[in-house]
Write a structure and sequence with these properties.
By secondary structure, the chain is mostly beta strands. The chain has helices at 3-10, 380-388, 414-417, and strands spanning 14-16, 22-25, 46-51, 64-69, 80-82, 102-104, 120-128, 133-142, 149-152, 156-163, 166-170, 173-177, 181-185, 191-195, 200-207, 232-234, 248-254, 257-263, 270-275, 280-283, 304-309, 316-323, 326-328, 345-353, 367-370, 394-396, 399-406, 411-412. The longest helix has 9 residues, at 380-388.
């Protein structure tokens, strides 16, 4: 933890808007005018395009940025394999998909000196990273800031802090993420995580598929859910050591394995950039909740913040859903989430407080997995309370929960299936449900 890092994080300025064609320069005149790759880039910089999608994808979906950097990205030694730690990647073939409802406590305390990468622990996932399909669920617990730099060629990283603030130093500039925020690091973008508190804990969705985008609003209209203007992109900032002055370890995740190289300069040396393949931070409390004002509990899709679409309209590779503070006013309605079986698979995490469908056992830093068609819903205590509650307007503001929802089953890693913090007896929360059926005749 560093007081200087905290001061830096709290004083950051940002660019506004998701998917915008942003531009930023840390030094005046660093961005070329009228072209992307002039014969000689300004200020002796090197021009580089970073592509997050194929060149010929539709313009509305194309992601790319131009970076103007002190050293070309190509100037590095060969990468060599290093240990993967507790990070695992699809295809997940070491265990069979499990139809049981599962729930975990938070990760155990890590060893002192554990940074963000070393603190990543894979719960499971689906798809095939070499085919750029599917996703992985990770949790992290770190006790030290990173001195090395990390990038993920396999997918983008949606970081959901649950405890402890983060200062993210990226190629594009700096982001500040606290619990209640999410940070989105696009595929291939290099970054370093500095802790703003004694330790940091949270969740990560690694999305191998199409980049996250804002969901279509359909009959909601032009406004609602996550507003594009509330996503904040960094302004340009760079590290400018001379080549040969410093040695920086760079870790690259590629097709499921970690590779490492030692650079003679910092790769976070981008002086200016423009484009739309950029990192973001978003405050989940700014989510504009849309809900029922008549009857029935709405489907959780109405709480979607970001979606990674598949080749089937409406069927996401992964959705990121938040259960943010909101009013419940439905009349003659069972207000918590209803009992259901879903073709989608759901991993839920809790950032703070309590979740309105689980009275106990579901704690911040923990998580639950309900794979496709597994029956789930409110526990017995919640059902009894909600069935008898006076249906006056009720403000839900004592918890912040989220969900990674995916079209495929989430197959566990062996470490998740055998984890000491896997809760035994999760099925018991639905035991003792009384029979209330009374035939009329």
């Amino acid at each position: 933890m560093s007081g200087d890092a905290r001061k830096t994080a709290e004083g950051l300025a940002y660019l506004s808007g998701f998917g915008n064609e942003h531009s930023s320069e840390a030094v005046a005149g660093a961005l070329p005018e009228g072209r992307n790759s002039p014969q000689r880039a300004p200020l002796g910089l090197y021009a580089e395009q970073l592509s997050g999608t194929a060149f010929t994808e539709p313009r509305a979906h194309n992601r790319r940025s131009w970076l103007y950097r002190i050293h070309p990205s190509a100037a590095h030694p060969a990468f060599t394999r290093t240990g993967n730690g507790a990070i695992r990647t699809a295809p997940f073939t070491q265990a069979v998909p499990d139809p049981n409802r599962l729930r975990w406590n938070p990760l155990p305390e890590p060893e002192p000196g554990t940074d963000f990468v070393a603190g990543l622990w894979t719960l499971g996932g689906n798809g095939d990273v070499t085919q750029r399909t599917g996703m992985a669920v990770h949790v992290y617990h770190a006790t030290a800031s990173m001195e090395r730099v990390f990038s993920d060629a396999d997918g983008e990283l949606l970081i959901v802090p649950e405890r402890g603030g983060l200062l993210l130093r990226t190629e594009f500039g700096l982001l500040h993420a606290e619990p209640g925020h999410v940070a989105l690091i696009p595929r291939g973008v290099r970054f370093r995580v500095e802790l703003l508190d004694e330790d940091a804990r949270g969740y990560v969705c690694e999305n191998y598929g199409a980049p996250f985008r804002l969901p279509d609003l359909g009959p909601i209209g032009a406004n609602g859910l996550a507003n594009a203007r509330d996503f904040r992109a960094p302004v340009a900032a760079y590290e400018a050591d001379e080549a040969g002055e410093g040695r920086v370890e760079v870790v690259n995740k590629f097709c499921g394995n970690l590779w490492t190289a030692v650079y003679d300069h910092s790769p976070l040396d981008v002086v200016a950039w423009h484009g739309n393949h950029v990192p973001y931070v978003y405050d989940l409390r700014r989510f504009n909740v849309i809900g029922t004002i008549s009857y029935d509990h709405p489907d959780p899709s109405i709480f979607t913040v970001l979606t990674s679409p598949s080749d089937t309209p409406g069927l996401a590779g992964v959705d990121f859903v938040v259960f943010a503070p909101r009013w419940l006013v439905g009349e003659d309605t069972f207000r918590p989430p209803y009992f259901h079986r879903n073709v989608m698979s759901e991993y839920m995490g809790l950032i703070e407080g309590a979740y309105d469908a689980k009275a106990e056992g579901f704690v911040p830093g923990g998580g639950s997995l309900h794979n496709m068609m597994s029956a789930h819903g409110p526990d017995r205590e919640t059902f009894d309370r909600a069935s008898a509650a006076e249906l006056k307007p009720q403000r839900i503001d004592d918890g912040l929960a989220f969900m990674f929802e995916t079209r495929w089953p989430v197959t566990l890693t062996p470490q998740a299936a055998r984890a000491e913090h896997l809760q035994p007896g999760y099925d018991d929360v639905w035991q003792g449900m009384e029979r209330h059926f009374r035939p009329l005749h």
